[in-house]
Structure prediction request, 83 residues.
Amino acid sequence: MTFVLKFADLLTTILTFALFARAIISWFPGIPRTNPLVEVLYQITEPVLAPIRRVLPSMGSMDFSPLVAFFLLQIIRQVLLGL
Prediction:
């Protein structure tokens, strides 16, 4: 496996964990957005989620963009690792 593929694998894994952590944190509204860990999670995940939100139709108060991002990241990972 080349360096680029290993890096892409690591990046998709980190993004997946960050998205999962952000989704879990969203269930606890008492955690302030100004918390340094939460702020880092938003900085890591927002560039992935924002374009999906622009395309995905609004579903009321439910945000399905993390779920779509999970699926897309796994597809990208499988395609890259299949090379």
DSSP finds three helices and no strands in the chain.
